[in-house]
């Protein structure tokens, strides 16, 4: 497994990371034993970067990862943790808390659930509109000095917020959605990160399974985030699956799967971009890992662009109410 420096200031990480969110109920029921086996398979394949959030399954995801890491060499794994999202007892979202005292509290619980004494990359999940980013990043910087955090990252914030945060402390990476059908970062956010030496950890590279080549209309059931996602809704999903079929023809001609060509496309956009694959089963992980052997030449990239033109997807990447509160969606 090749490794790459995560931005100018970050650690060396595997060129592909494992996003663990789906192992804790966000996409419907998951199998605990298979989840742990998938994490073990990822580590054995050389993946070093595991991504989670303290609010995934209200702590379930961190405890799952903690269990999977027992007996493993801590220094061979980089744990990337998002914090700040608030939820109620029914699992509903209740805003964000980026206050310094909240940062310290969230981190204390995370260390306990994961069973570790430091976090490699700690990041607010979203911008708290009531707290200056300087205060939130400053609080994490204090935790870096205290030895509880190694590096600071950001998630789903826009160019201005990235610049303000970088003044307070070096930022190693921005975690943000990026895929063939979610290319909004190319206009302003990606150039800003490159100017400042900040890496990208790209989630949603298969658009929550939509462009995996495996998705079938109507597959999202209750408890699955995708049941509410605009791109999976009637009227949009048909257009989006038509894009997938166009991409499938390109993949078939190259002798690879749709998922592999979609992941390879993200990786081909720059060595500073690390795709996070959300596999929660070993077979899906194996398929994703095989994307590392896919080499895309200029003709391939042209064919992919023709199959899935920029801005061709129907529907937003999140419901409108959520997009309205996302700093990364503010332009100008």
UniProtKB/TrEMBL annotation:
Q: Where are the transmembrane segments?
A: none
Keyword field: Oxidoreductase
Which named protein is this? Aldo/keto reductase
**What InterPro entries does the annotation carry?**
Aldo-Keto_reductase, NAD(P)_OxRdtase_dom_sf, NADP_OxRdtase_dom
- GO cellular component assignments: cytoplasm
Which GO molecular function annotation, any one, does this entry have?
A: oxidoreductase activity
Q: Name one Pfam family in it.
A: Aldo_ket_red
């Amino acid at each position: 497994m090749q490794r790459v420096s995560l931005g100018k200031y970050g650690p060396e990480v595997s060129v592909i990371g494992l996003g663990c969110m789906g192992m804790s109920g966000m996409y419907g029921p998951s199998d605990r034993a298979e989840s742990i086996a998938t994490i073990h398979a990822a580590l054995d394949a050389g993946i070093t970067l595991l991504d989670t959030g303290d609010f995934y399954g209200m702590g379930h995801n961190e405890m799952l990862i903690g269990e999977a890491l027992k007996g493993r060499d801590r220094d061979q794994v980089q744990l990337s943790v998002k914090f700040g999202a608030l939820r109620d007892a029914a699992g509903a979202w209740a805003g964000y808390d980026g206050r310094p005292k909240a940062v310290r509290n969230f981190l204390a619980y995370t260390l306990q659930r994961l069973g570790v004494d430091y976090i490699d990359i700690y990041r607010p999940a979203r911008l708290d509109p009531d707290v200056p980013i300087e205060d939130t990043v400053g609080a994490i910087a204090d935790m870096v000095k205290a030895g509880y955090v190694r590096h600071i990252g950001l998630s789903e914030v826009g160019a201005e917020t990235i610049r303000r945060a970088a003044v307070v402390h070096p930022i190693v990476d921005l975690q943000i959605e990026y895929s063939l059908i979610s290319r909004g970062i190319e206009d302003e956010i990606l150039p800003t990160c490159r100017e400042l030496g900040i890496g990208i950890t790209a989630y949603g590279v298969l658009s929550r399974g939509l462009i995996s080549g495996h998705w079938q209309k109507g597959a999202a059931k209750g408890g699955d985030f995708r049941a509410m996602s605009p791109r999976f809704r009637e009227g949009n999903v048909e257009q989006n699956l038509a894009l997938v079929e166009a991409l499938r023809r390109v993949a078939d001609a190259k002798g690879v799967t749709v998922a592999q060509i979609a992941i390879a496309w993200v990786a081909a956009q720059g060595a500073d971009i690390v795709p996070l694959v959300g596999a929660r089963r070993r077979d899906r992980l194996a398929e994703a890992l095989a994307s590392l052997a896919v080499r895309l030449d200029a003709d391939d990239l042209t064919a992919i662009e023709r199959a899935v033109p920029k801005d061709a997807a129907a529907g937003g990447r999140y419901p409108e109410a959520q997009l309205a509160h996302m700093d990364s969606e503010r332009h100008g």
